[in-house]
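Researcher: Please translate sequence to structure tokens.
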Amino acid sequence: MTVIDKPPILLAFRDTLICNVDTVKLNASGSGAISWTPNYNILNSTLMSPSVFPKTTTVYTVEFNENGCRNTDSVRVRVVSSVNLTASSDTAICANDRVQLSANTDGLHYAWAPDPTLSNPNILNPIATPAVTTTYRITSKTGGCTATENVVVTVIPKPIVNAGNDVDICYNSTTQLNAQTNGTAFTWSNASSLSDASVLNPIATPKATTSYVLAATDISSGCPKPSYDTVTVTVLPKVNAFAGNDTVIIANLPLQLKATGGINYQWSPATGLNNPNIQGPIALLDGNPEYVSYLVTVADRAGCFDTASIAIRVYKTGPEIFVPTGFTPNGDGRNDIFRPIYVGMKTIDYFQVYNRWGALVYSNNKSDGSGWNGAVNGLNQNTGTFIWMVRATDIIGNVHFKKGTVQLIR
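Model: Translation complete:
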């Protein structure tokens, strides 16, 4: 007996979903005569790819007949008359916040719009970051069946906060803050250095550079989150004016003054100065009077200032080295230090003190007023006679050498 195999059938799909207003093309392949059943809303039922437009879910069966050998297969066309879609409720957010939208649908395709502020418009639960109040619309489709839903995201602005301009202040001084806000409540950080943290214009007294943060809220607006702004009060370093060490000079020979500590300088009185408004004026004094004192006011970029003075003794003699014959290092603040007085000297080669056995007990080469305090290695020396020697070069290049004795008196 001869066995005849059934002709093979290949279908493009087994199941599909359409809207009741849609037409879908079926697709089968095989050999022999072909027919599709049922003959319900179908065009060209004897073709491989007929078009169907059922209004209800229908199973279409295809049959191939090759010389009396038959084979069948089927495809289900599911039909819906509408798309189900529900979206999340309208909501409100604070400015610069984000919110997750959500939706449920049985549609085959869906998308949100507008999409520039969405993390992904083609998913059901994108993240929205609108800058202003925005209506988001989701559209869900199955063929010609369409459904839409809107979600309104209301953007509530945070309070406006302006803590004021940054400011520089002098050391150990104060400044008034000037803040503004339309919030209904506010707080200052670092309140301990403010005169009253419950007002917008407190007096700030910071010991060091401090940033004050103003946080303001307006719960009644619907946004409970605060806005912030910062004002920095920079405390400038203390101005330490220095006019130079007290000195002695020769009459009618120029003395270069030089103050330090700031960027602006004002000397007083202006007598004998070539320019009292610079850091280092030249003083030319004739010895009348013998003692002159200058006061310098030193200021920084913010106008913070300090004062210092320098005392000048003017000798009418030529360059000279004056050395006292005795001193009393008893700590009373009078004649406690043994030191030469240099008049008109440019450099000091040495100033040395020896005891009666020739041992060096003190030496320096400075003209800053330093000298011997009557102690050696921290031990006070007894009353006695000591030998000194000094050599220096004056402003015109002459070398001066002197030696002698000094009496230490306890």
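Researcher: Any highlights?
Model: The chain has no helices and 40 strands.
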